[in-house]
């Protein structure tokens, strides 16, 4: 079983099952297994949202580590900036379909093999479809991706959509949203219950 943990969230303990020999032995007892541990001790500024996601600040790392080595992240995400209504740089850029663009400036760093694939199963795919938005009224926006959101920035400025082991990449992910107030949510594809949220900055 592949094991992973998100910072400050505890996952259920794994259960080990023993094997009996040919003779009638007592029921084997599973040894105690420690549950997944947090990467650091919670502080007053590290809280969860009503959706159970970790709230993150701009520039604050978010990551997943393997239980085999909790001191090292298998993947680390850093949102370096969130820009509302950015200027598109692609010569083929179109107006947003939903009203506004939001550009998320990200850095993603992954561990090498074999640890990366043991936890993440394969390349990480980060795109507008990876995010959702909760507006200021608490309503989830149905879709934050569109043709114009994919075509807003030059390819050299966008985050690679597929990220493999032993990589460190930077770039922007552009969302197409109806409002500029609320929070942005990223849920990990290997387990949607693991996620982080960032408040959209207001100028």
Automatic annotation (TrEMBL):
It comes from the Bacteria. Keywords: Signal. Residues 25-52 are annotated as: Disordered. InterPro entries: Immunoprotect_excell_Ig-like. This is DUF4352 domain-containing protein. Residues 1-24 form the signal peptide. Residues 38-51 have a biased composition (Polar residues). Transmembrane segments: none annotated. Coiled coil: none annotated.
